Automatic annotation (TrEMBL), chains A, B, C, D, E, F:
Pfam family, one: CbbQ_C
Organism from which the protein derives: Mycolicibacterium diernhoferi
Name the UniProt record assigns to this protein: AAA family ATPase
Domain AAA+ ATPase intervals: 25-223
Keywords: ATP-binding, Nucleotide-binding
UniProt-recorded Gene Ontology molecular function terms: ATP binding; ATP hydrolysis activity
InterPro entries cross-referenced by the UniProt entry: AAA+_ATPase, ATPase_dyneun-rel_AAA, CbbQ/NirQ/NorQ/GpvN, CbbQ_C, P-loop_NTPase
Length: 263, 263, 263, 263, 263, 263
C-alpha cells in the first residue's frame, strides 16, 4: 500500500539518515527494538519519504516460506499461482517489511537470504524461476533483541550485509502525543499513562517478560475513551496482560495505585 | 446460537464494564480462571446483553486450525468447503469463544493472531482468501493460568492487544443457587457440597492438581438426584476424580466425613 | 454383543449403585483397578442388568482414532466407510467400554472428549458429520492407576465430568470360585493358587511391576487342568512371567515352595 | 514348513511338558534364553512332536507389521494382496515363531497383542478384516532377557497371558555332539571348543556383551573343517567377533592359548 | 559464468601453487577461512587463470540436494528436468564452488561424496543415471573452521582426498585497496576502516562470534560514499551488526571513538 | 567388475587363509581396520584369487536400502526396475563388498541381515520376491573400530555369524612401494612420506581423529609429482586435512619440519 498521508514520525537519532543511505545502496535493514515501540511507524514514514510502496507482513513462528513467496491455489477447478507478499515486493520494487519475526522457521529465513546478500534475487522453486529484485526493492526486518530471533538463524555472512538501526520507546512528549491522538483521550490521561509506563519500564529487577509498550498505552486509553474508569482500564489492559502471576499482579496494582490520581 | 433466555449471571467485580468497553473497542478478551468456575456462563451472559450470536468451541490439545477454519469435505462425490466455527463467527460478526485452551497447538494459535491484532482478519489458506472480520466479531479466549497455556505461544505483541478479565469461583450464595437449580437438589444438599468444595479449595499445601469446581458439584448433586446417597456420590464424583493417589484419596475421604452430616 | 446370560458378579462395595446412578445421568464412568482384577466382568454384569448392548475394545498404545471411529476401506474396487466400534456404540446407544487404556495416544483421547463432556457427540471428521450419542450410550474407560494413563492426557475439565469407581482383586472366596470354574480345576487347587497370589500381592517392597492377577491364576490353573504338575504350572505361568530378573525369579520360587504343598 | 525328520532335542528340565500343556490350552509361549542357545531347535522339535507346521520369522528392529501381516504388491500391473507369514500361520493353524525379537517396533507388537490375549484374532487393517486364529495356531516368541526386549512394549495384561519357558546353553555333552555333527569335525575338536566356550561363559566380570554361543562354536568348527588351523579359526570366528576392544581381544587370546592344545 | 576480466588477487602464501597442483591432479579443494576474507575472489582468480568456467553456489543450511543436482519442474503442463548447478558443472567440466557451507544438511554432503573421492561421479537418482565428471571438473568447498561445518559430516575417508588451503584476511595494504575500489571511497577513509577492523580482529577475549570482515568494511564505506558520516556508518554497518548485546555495543562504540578521527 | 590383473597384495598374517576358509563355508566376512589401510586392495586380491566378480560399494551414512537393492525408475514414460549392486551380486554369485560403513542407517543394515545369517537370501520388498543368494555370493563389510559402526546395529545373533579379519597399515617397505608406484614419485620421496606417516601414527596422546593413511600419502606424493614442493604438498594434503585446530596444525608443522629434509 502506498502511504498517501505522511505518517507522523520525529527522528530521535540518525536513524533517518542511515535508512536513506542504506536505501540508496540497496542494502537490507535490520530494525532492533522492543515490542510496540514504533518500528512499524518508522518504516511507514521512510517509505513515504522515499515514495515507495510498503508491503508489511507480521511475522509469526508458523509462517512458512509459501506465506511469503506464494502458492498454487485452486480457483474454479484450475490451479492458479498467487504471488505472496514478498514476491510482489520483489517484482514491484517495493519496501518489504517483515515485522517482529520471532523464532521464524528455517524455510522462512532461507527465502530472505538471497535477497539480503549480493544476489538480490528470489528463487521461486515452485515456479522454477529466480526473480531479480526490481529497482527500489528493499528488505527491512525487525526484531526484539530480547527474544530468540531470526538473526540467530541468519548466516553470519548474510547478517554482515545488513545495516542495523536501533530504536527505543519514544521520548515522553512524543509518546504522550501519540497516545492522546490515537486513542482519542485528553492529554492529561495520556500523561498519566506515559508516566505509569515509564515507571514500569524502569523497574529494577523486573519479573516481566515485556514492559508496557506504546501500543498497550493506546489500547488502555481506548478503554477509557469507551467510558471505562481509568483504574479498571489499567488493570484490564496493562496489569493482567503483563503477568499471570498473582504476586506480580498485586505488586503492579500497588504501583498503579501510587501513580494514578485518587478518584 | 443466539441465547434467547438471559443466562443467570451476577457480577462480582467490574468484569461486565470491562467486557462492554472491550466489545465497543473491538478488542479481543482473555478470560483467566480455574476449570469450571463459570467462564462460559459469563460469556453467554455478555453475548445476550450485547445481542450477539455466540459460537463456542471447547479447546483441546489436538485441535487443528482446520477444526476452527474449516475444511473441504467429500459430499456425494463432490468436494465441498465447509466453514469451521471461527470462520462462521468472522463472517457473521458473532462472538467467538474458545473455551479452555490448554496447550493449544501452534497452528491453532496462528489463525487467532491476525484476528487478535490490528488486522482483524482471518486468512483462509485453503481458499486463498483473507476474510475481514464482520462488524460485531469479537474474539474471547479463556485459560487457566495454573496450566501451560496458549498464552505462552501467543506473540507478546499479540498478547498486548488483549483485554484481560480474571474470574474466580462464585461466592457461596451464588454457587449454592446454581448447584441446586442445575442438578435439581434441595438447597441443603447444595449447601453441604458448596461448603465441602470451599474446604477443599482452601486446603493448605494441597496435593491436588485441580480443586473441586462448580461443575463438579453439579455432577455430584446430580447423582444424589438420581437416588445415590450423598457419601457415595461425593466419593465417586469428587474424591476419586480429584486424585489417583491412595493417600490423598484417604485424606480427602476423612475431610468429607468431617463435613458431611452423619447419616 | 448383548450378554444373554447374566455374568457372575458379586458386589463388594457401592460400585453397582454408583454405576446405575451414573447410567441414569448419562455420565461417563472411570474404572480404576489393577490388571486382571475383574473390571471387564463388572462392566459385563452392569450391561446385562441395564439391558444394554456392550461394545468392548481392548486399548493398546498404538490404537488410533480410526480404530475407534472407523475408516474407509476398499471393497471390490469401491471405497466403503466402515463404522468403528465407538461409532457403532454412539449410533446404537450401547455401552462402550475401552479396556485398559495404557498410554493411549493423543488422537485416541481426542475422540473421547466430546463424548465425555456435556456435548455427548462424536465428530467423524472423515465423513464431515458430528453424531449425537443415542439415548443409552454410555462411555466407560478403565485404567490401572499404577501406570501412565490416559487420564493424564484428558483435560482436567473433561475428567471432572467422569464418575469414578475403584475396584480391587476380589475377596478370596470369590476369587477361588472364579478360578475353579473358569479353569476347570478342583477347589483345593484354586485355593492354593489364591493363597499364593495373595502372598505375592502382600509382599513388602515388592520388585514386581505387576502382581499376580485373577486372570493369571486362571491361566495357571488351566495348565494344571491340562495335566501339568502344579509346581511347573506356577513356575511357567506365574514366576517366569512376573519377572525376568534371576534374583527375583529365585526369590519367587522359594516363596512358591513355601506355599505349595509338598509333592 | 513341516519338519519331516525329528529334530534332535534332549530335554533338560520340564520345558517339553510345559510347552505341550500350553499348546493344548492354546496359550502363547515366551522363550527366554541367550543368543544361539538352541531356542529355534526346541521350537522345531515341539512342532514336530505336535505334528504342526512351523513358520519362523527372524525378528529385527526394522521389521514392520506389514512384514508379518502382508502387503499389497504390484504384479503384472495389478495390485495383489500377499499374506505375510503371521497371517499364513493364523489361517493355517500353524505355530508362528518370532525368533529373537530385539527392540521390535511398536507396530510389530501391536499385531501380536490380539493374538496373544483371549481374542486370538488378527486384525488385517489393509483388508478391513479380522481373522480368527485357526485351530492349532500358536504364538511363540523368544527373546534374550539381557537385552531391551519386546516384552517391555507388551501390555502387562497381555504378558500375563503368556506361558514362559527359560532355556540356557545345553549341557557340555549335548553341545559337543551338536558341534561335531553340524560342523563335521571330530569329537576332540568339538570338546576343545565347548570347553573354551564354557570358560568364556563363566568369566567373572566379563566385558563381553554376549558370550560364545553354540552357534558360534559350530561356525568356528566349520572353519576347521575347511582346513583352517584351530587357533586361526578361534581368533577369526570367536575372539574378533566377540569384541572390538584391543585389550579385550588380547585377554581373550591369552585365554584361548591357555585352553587350546599346543600345536 | 566465465570470468572475462582477471579478478584482482595477490597471493600471500603458496595457495596459488597448491591450487594449480590440485587442479592438475583433479583433487577436490577445501578452502578454510573466516567469513568475508576473500575466498570467493581467490576461486574466481584461479578459474580465470585455468581458463575454466566457475559455477558458484552460496550454501545455506536449508539447501537440499535437489538445489544442487536439479529437479523436475512443471512447464506448460509438462514435466521437464532442469539441471542444478552441480550437475551443470559436472557435465561441462567447470569448477564448482560451494561457498560457505555452514551446517549443510546430510543429503547435500552426500551428493558431494562420490565427486570428491576416486569415483568422480555424480549419481542423479531422479534420472536413474550416474554422470562421470567431465575433464576439468573440480570441486571446491569453503568453510569457516570456527563454525560447525560440513567437514564434520564428510566421511574421514572422503576428507582425506581433499587438498586443504587456508586463507585469512588480506594484509592491510591489499584490504585498503579493495575497500577503496569496491566502495568508491578515498584511500584515507579505507585506511581508517581497515585499521578499525584490525583493532577489532585483534581484541583479546573478544565476545564477538565473528569479527569485522573485508566485506563489512566495503559495506560501511559504501554508506559513507552515499553521504552518511563515518561515525554513523560504522555504528550501523559494523557495531550494531556485530552484536546485539548492549554492553558489547557500548564497548565497541568506545573503541570506534578511539580509532576514528575527531570530527 | 572382474579384476583381470592380479592386484598386488602381500599377506602379513593368516588373513588370506581365513578368508579362503570363510569363502568355502559361505560365511560373511568382517574386515576391521583404519581408513585407507588397504582393506579394499585385500578384497580385490581375494576376489582375483577366487576367480569371482567383485562388486564394491562405498558406504556413506545417507545410503538407503534402495541404493543397495534397487529401485523403480522412469525410463521413457515406463516404470522399469533396476537392480542395485547388492541384488546384482546376489543374483550373480559375486563378492559384495560394502566399504567403510560408518554409521549406516537402519534400513541399510536390515537388508544385510538375512544375507549374513543362515537364510542367505535377499528380500526385495518392492518386487515382492525373496532372492536366494547364488552359489559363490559372499558378503564382505569393512569398518573402522574407532568409529561408531554398523556393527552396533547388527543383531548380536547376526554378528555371531561373521568371520572377522583385522588389518592394519602395511609394513613400511610395502607402503613405500605402493606410494611410489601409485603416485609416480621416486622411492626417496615415498620413503620420507612413509616415515612421516609412521611418526604421526605413533604420536602419544594424539589429538587427531584419524592418522595419516596410505591413501593420504599417495595423494600427497601426487602433488609432488605435479611439481609442488614437498613441504607445501605435505601441508596441503596432510597437515591441514588432519586438523582444523590452529595449535594442532602448528604442532604437526613442526613435526613435519623435523622429518623432512632441509631444502
Amino acid at each position: 500500500m502506498l502511504t498517501l498521508q505522511a505518517p507522523f514520525y520525529r527522528a530521535v537519532n540518525d536513524e533517518v539518515e542511515v535508512f536513506h543511505a542504506a536505501a540508496r545502496r540497496g542494502a537490507p535493514v535490520l530494525l532492533k527494538g522492543p515490542t510496540g515501540c514504533g518500528k512499524t511507524r518508522f518504516v511507514e514514514a521512510m517509505a513515504h519519504e522515499l515514495g515507495r510502496d510498503l508491503i508489511t507482513v507480521a511475522g509469526h513462528e508458523d509462517m512458512t516460506s509459501a506465506d511469503l513467496v506464494g502458492r498454487f491455489l485452486l480457483k474454479g477447478g484450475e490451479t492458479v499461482w498467487v504471488d505472496g507478499p514478498l514476491t510482489r515486493a520483489v517484482r514491484e520494487g517495493a519496501i518489504f517489511y517483515l515485522d517482529e519475526v520471532v523464532e521464524a522457521r528455517q524455510d522462512t529465513t532461507v527465502v530472505i537470504h538471497p535477497l539480503a546478500d549480493h544476489r538480490r534475487e528470489l528463487p521461486v522453486d515452485r515456479l522454477g524461476i529466480t526473480l531479480p529484485a526490481a529497482e527500489g526493492f528493499q528488505l527491512v526486518i525487525s526484531y526484539n533483541p530480547g527474544y530468540q530471533s531470526v538473526l540467530k538463524s541468519l548466516k553470519e555472512s548474510t547478517r554482515q550485509r545488513f545495516i542495523a538501526i536501533e530504536l527505543g520507546f519514544p521520548p515522553p512528549d512524543v509518546e504522550r502525543e501519540v497516545v492522546a491522538r490515537e486513542a482519542g483521550v485528553d492529554p492529561s490521561t495520556a500523561d498519566i499513562l506515559v508516566r505509569l509506563a515509564n515507571t514500569i519500564r524502569n523497574l529494577d529487577g523486573s519479573p516481566l517478560r515485556e514492559v508496557a509498550s506504546t501500543r498497550m498505552l493506546i489500547l488502555t486509553a481506548g478503554l477509557v475513551a469507551e467510558g471505562l474508569n481509568l483504574r479498571s482500564a489499567v488493570q484490564a489492559a496493562m496489569v493482567l496482560v503483563l503477568s499471570d502471576d498473582a504476586d506480580v499482579v498485586r505488586a503492579l496494582g500497588e504501583l498503579v495505585d501510587a501513580v494514578l490520581p485518587r478518584a
